[in-house]
Amino acid sequence: MENKILCPKCKSQEIIKWCRRKTQNRGLIQRYKCKSCKKYFTLDEGFFRMRNSPQKITQAIDLFYRGASTRGTQEHLGMFYPHNADHSTILRWIWKYSKIIGKFTDKLNLKLSEEIQFDEIEYCRRKSHKKGIKGVEDNFFIDGVCPSTRFMVASEYSKARNKKKIVSIISSAKQRTITQIKMVSTDGLNAYIGAVKKVFGYNNKLGRYNVFHNRLVTSKEDGVFNYPIERLHNNVRARTKTFRGFHGSLRSANLILKGYEIYYNFIRINQAIDCCPYELATDLRLNEKNKWLELIRLSSVH
Question: Does the pTM exceed 0.85?
Answer without folding.
Answer: yes
